[in-house]
Design goal:
The chain is mainly alpha-helical. The protein has five helices and three strands, in the order ααβααββα. It has helices spanning 7-16, 18-26, 34-40, 45-53, 68-108, and strands at 31-33, 57-60, 63-66.
């Protein structure tokens, strides 16, 4: 197993093979056939080999999988991001609830004024 020699090499590798990373992680397609992975890296076997040698991906029979360390790393990073935007979603849901209740009240009691529910 080889290691990345620098953070630049690490970032460059993930940037260069971003289509494969998106397929493996973002789309939650944690296993991709080797031939499909090869297409995602522009038919460059040396690109797949580079990631395999550095244990970013694992060749498991005819499939390529994201190594569990990187999977956990991405999940941790993205979990932090989702927690930071949760309050925004909560406020949006509260506003939508108020709008829906107001619409329902107008349908049920057409002559009533706006009602604000907390």
């Amino acid at each position: 197993m080889l290691n990345f020699q620098s953070i630049k090499e690490f970032i460059d590798a993930f940037w260069r093979e971003s289509q494969l990373m998106v397929e493996l992680f973002d789309k939650r397609n944690l296993r991709v056939r080797y031939d499909d992975a090869l297409q995602l890296v522009g038919e460059k076997e040396e690109s797949l080999e580079f990631l395999i040698q550095r244990s970013v991906i694992i060749k498991n029979g005819e499939f390529i999988e994201l190594d569990s360390r990187y999977l956990e790393f991405f999940e941790d990073i993205l979990d932090v991001n989702s927690k930071s935007i949760f309050p925004i979603y909560k406020k949006i849901l509260k506003i939508l609830k108020q709008i829906l209740i107001s619409i329902l009240m107008k349908v049920i009691n057409p002559g009533s004024s706006n009602i604000c529910v907390k």
